[in-house]
Amino acid sequence: MRLLTHNMLSSNIKGVANGFPLRIEVEKVVEKKVDLNADFLRNIFPKIEWKAFAEAARTLGYAELPEDADSSFLDSDDFLDKFHHALLELHLEEGALICPETGRRFPVNKGIPNMLLHEDEV
Amino acid sequence: MSSRPEVQAPPEIFYNDVEARKYTSSSRIMEIQAKLSERALELLALPDDGVPRLLLDIGCGSGLSGETLSENGHQWFGLDISQSMLDVALEREVEGDLLLSDMGQGLGLRPGVMDGAISISAVQWLCNADRTSHDPRLRLKAFFGSLYRCLARGARAVFQLYPENLAQRELILSFAMRAGFAGGMVVDFPHSTKRRKEYLVLTCGPPSISTSVPKGKGEDGESCSEDESSDDEAEQTVCISDRHRPRKKQKLTKKGKGREWILRKKEQKRRRGDEVPLDTKYTARKRKPRF
User: Fold this and answer.
1) Which of A89, A91, B153, B245 is most exposed, with the fewest beta carbons within 10 Å of its own?
2) Would you list which residues of chain A are within 8 Å, Cβ to Cβ, of chain B?
3) What's the CA gap between B246 and B6, in Å, rounded?
4) Which domains does chain B have, with CATH numbers?
5) What pTM did the predictor assign?
6) What is the CATH code of the structural domain delimited by A3-116?
């Protein structure tokens, strides 16, 4: 699972008011190279919750991202490279996602988070 | 027993390892899926500026539909309830991310982030109650409600689906409308039983010109053979219009039969002894339109 997906996911357990961001428990991280597309990065940037994103990248062991970012950063190639790497190339292969409110654990196996809820959580 | 998979077992059980592999190794299914997703993407009507969008694939299965999205340069992630299908997707090394999730439990996504959503042959599964705790109405409500929230304003969602009957179609449509979507069904090839494909095209946000539903293919009696994809499907569907022999070409032109023809006919009648008006300069002249 990439951080792009992590940044969009939130916990939808019944009664949880703010299920974002899911905490990450890391067991294994892999990197897969993909081509950089600046248009996509510019398009997706306003939708990213930067704080949660930078935090998640740090959890995966990538601390190059600035604490805060605004759209003026997008002109810098260096920033785009880092943004791209953290967003699309880092994969959480094994580990878990944890709901910030209830502490419910969603295990991640082979890069696929299991977001299935139990019957009493719907 | 019906051939519909929906009535045989719940999706996570029906699509077991064997069925998932069968599904993905059949070149026929792959081709159909690719075509359906191609059309769904077309109906999504994303702006044609070459910028990759973030799309959601609901019921992505083994990633056949996601592949079409990747080919068109978009980023996507998909969710499915069948672990076996997702395992096959992993083997095929699809580009998007995968989630094991049940759409009937609602989508756990942040509001307003997706640029569009597609779903190929999946939403009709929601109409089944596979467990005692399942209520199709609640599941449809949760699904469409959460989908509406996670789509950006003006974004579209396109679902290709196989409703079992009229009631099912109405049920799905009514819950989509209740969630706040505008839009409706687009039916491709409504005259053909096998090629008929139904798409639910929904737009997020208040009704406007952009929310009008596009037209289906082959709607106005356009014969099947005119379509470019007819070669491979010709064996599947019999084209009725081709069975008629071609009509005799009528020689009638706009100008009528001409002066010579009329003079010849009059001559014939005179020889037979009929009473025939005289030949004048007015013979075979066209009447003025105001007459």
Assistant:
1) B245
2) 1-2, 4-5, 7-12, 19-20, 34, 37, 39-40, 43-44, 47, 49, 88, 110-117, 119, 122
3) 44
4) 5-233 (3.40.50.150), 250-291 (no CATH)
5) 0.77
6) 2.20.25.10
